[in-house]
Amino acid sequence: MPRKILVATDGSPSALAAARWAERLAATEAGSRLTLVHVLPALPLALPDGLIFDRGAMEAMAAPALDAAQAALGPGTHADTHVLLGPAGERVAALAAEEGYDLVAVGRRGPNPLRQLLLGSVSGRILQLANCPVVVVEGRQANHGENEEEGSPMLRKVLLAVDGSPSSLAAARWIAALAQHLPELSVTAVTVVRDPRLNAGTLGGGYLPAELLDPANLEAMGQPVLDAAHAALGDAVHAYQGRVLLGPAAEGIVQLAEEGGYDLIAMGRRGLNPVAQLVLGSVSERVVHLAPCPVVIVRD
Q1: Same domain, yes or no, for 119 and 30?
Q2: Is 238 in the same domain as 284?
Q3: Residue 168's closest CA among 98, 121, 224, 125?
């Protein structure tokens, strides 16, 4: 369970949604710490009246974004703040490592990509560099995890995308730890099998055995991966089911998340199972881009 959560913010709707999501997660365990960070660009800045670009000037420039993020949190929520200077992705990832944060929360899209002020494509850089899990939230996802009943848990349904790689099993263990504090959590583990027609040379007249397309055979191809994910989850979750889909991977995962009304997608940062033709890996970035709900990416 994350006890130290770092929220990268630039004042955009996505960043504010990430702050609210992180706040609700932190509220599930007493003593959790929430920190807001804003990164200023390492570019020559024309300051009025010959002001020196010192700590006071940096804090003044960061104040609108940090104030907006603090205002997005509940009135009783206290968050520490950091103001950094430099390339945003690198500085956020470095701060998370140096101070031992358990989770970084970022928005999926920043408000002004031309000025490189924060997030937008920077979220991808944080995903690449952070040594802890990263949750990515888009502005329209602000209500995901906000259940209508007073006191109801923020997460009830998690879609766990797995391929048997160390990172995807790490994602399963991360969800299992989370479930210790969310007793009603249900998890669907999904693995995606590459369509064998993509590898059989069918466009050149290659022969494709019909049994390869038999749903039972496809299910059998994915079952060992689902069994490993189930073992990693243990008995922590309230309810569990496994699903095997026929690729493409990212689109299948996103469609299942949409149809099932999931609150969160969890997956590893890199998949490593080309022999069994179970695909995840680089599609994590595509899932983050397309997902209808927040996505947490876990490294091994």
Answers
A1: yes
A2: yes
A3: 224
Q: What b/e string do you get for 217-242 counting C-beta neighbours within 10 Å, with b at 16 or more?
A: ebeebbeebbebbbebbeebbeebeb
Global pTM value = 0.83
- Same domain membership, residue 123 and residue 201: no
Average pLDDT (117-123) is: 56
* Burial grade of 57 (CB within 10 A; 0-12, 13-18, 19 or more): middle
Classified as helix, coil or strand, 84 is: strand
Confirm whether 121 is domain-assigned: yes
In a domain, 152, yes or no: no
Query: Which tens digits make up the pLDDT trace of 243-268?
Result: 999 878 899 999 999 999 999 999 99
Residue 149 in domain: no
* Residue 211 belongs to domain with CATH number: 3.40.50.620
- Structurally, the chain folds into a number of domains equal to 2
CA angle 214-220-224, nearest 5°?
160
Q: Alpha-carbon distance 266 to 252, whole Å?
A: 14
Contact residues for 203 (Cβ-Cβ < 8 A; gap 6+): none
Q: Which residues contact 54 (CB under 8 A, 6 or more apart)?
A: none
Query: Contact at 8 Å (CB) between 126 and 4?
Result: no
pLDDT for res 112: 45
Look at residue 289 in the predicted model and tell me its pLDDT. Answer: 87
Q: Is residue 148 part of a domain?
A: no
Structure confidence by residue, pLDDT tens digits, 147-188 = 444 444 578 999 999 999 999 999 999 999 999 988 899 999
Domain that holds residue 239: 157-298
Radius of gyration of the chain (CA): 21
21 and 129 part of one domain: yes
Domain stop point among 141, 166, 198: 141
Three-state DSSP class for 33? Answer: strand
- pLDDT tens readout for residues 44-78: 555 555 555 677 778 888 889 999 999 999 888 98
